[in-house]
Design brief:
This protein has helices at about 15-25, 45-50, 60-70, 90-100, 115-130, 150-155, 165-175, 195-200, 200-215, 235, and strands spanning about 1-10, 30-35, 55, 75-80, 85, 105-110, 145, 180-190. Strand 2, helix 2 and strand 3 form a beta-alpha-beta unit. The chain is of the alpha/beta class and about 240 residues long. The model is unreliable at about 235-243 (pLDDT under 50). The chain starts with a strand and ends in a 7-residue tail after the last helix.
């Protein structure tokens, strides 16, 4: 069984798109757990309408840990609320995960709506880098697939980390000799709202500096990069979700 765990905070605009894409999957042996950080919009009602389990969350690391506590699946899939899964994503990704005997996996990303500039950045820089470095310096963002047994051995996400807690999880797993890989079969569609809100160059610089911090200093436990959980709501309020 697969447990899909989604941390949320006021995600009424994006959560329906993700849940619809999950419901369309040919793979059916899954549960969806929404770990909510206190949404004041329709997020919880939307989650209930799709039959999701709901737990109290917090910042993303906290929410993912709380979701994992009630997960029944042997495989955990941590997924951002603004993602969309392509057709047959689950069955094909899980098949590759099994065939390659992976313990934990990250994914290549593709932004939506389609944008040539953002797509060039992802395909020519980010996606190539994470594939080339998968066995040396694991990268993971937006989605992580992993065995629950490994997650428990690691003690879950480090809730003291302010930024890139997902990469920290992957790198701690590799230090325990876990087999990490980037799934090639399917990409995750991720909203371009980060680029639009913060700017592509600003995001690139932030994560480059974050990478250097992780390599030479350690995990980012201060608020030096001014991370905020879901600071997109004001801009997204014009988007109408479909239920």
């Amino acid at each position: 069984m697969l447990s899909i765990i989604i941390p949320t905070l006021n995600e009424e605009d994006y959560l329906p798109r993700l849940l619809r894409s999950i419901k369309k999957q040919g793979f059916t042996d899954y549960e969806v757990i929404v770990a909510d950080a206190g949404s004041s919009d329709e997020t919880l009602n939307i989650a209930r309408s799709y039959g999701c389990k709901i737990v109290k969350g917090g910042l993303p690391a906290k929410g993912r840990n709380e979701g994992a506590k009630v997960a029944k699946g042997e495989i955990l899939f941590f997924l951002d609320a603004d993602a969309i899964l392509l057709d047959d994503f689950l069955s094909e990704s899980l098949r590759e995960f099994s065939d390659r005997k992976l313990d934990i996996a990250g994914f290549c990303l593709k932004s939506y709506p389609a944008n040539k500039f953002f797509s060039f950045f992802e395909n020519s820089i980010y996606n190539k880098i994470i594939i080339i470095s998968e066995k040396v310096l694991p990268h993971s963002a937006v989605g992580i697939l992993m065995k629950k047994e490994l997650f428990n051995k690691l003690g879950g996400y480090d809730e003291t980390i302010k930024l890139a807690e997902d990469m920290d999880l992957s790198r701690r797993a590799v230090k325990m000799d876990a087999n990490f890989g980037i799934i090639r079969t399917k990409e995750i569609l991720a909203s371009d709202r980060r680029f639009k809100k913060d700017g592509l160059i600003a995001i690139g610089i932030k994560f480059f500096l974050c990478e250097l911090h992780m390599i030479f200093i350690g995990p980012v436990r201060s608020n030096i990069f001014n991370y905020k959980f879901n600071h997109y709501k004001e801009e997204n309020s014009k988007i109408k979700h479909q239920t």
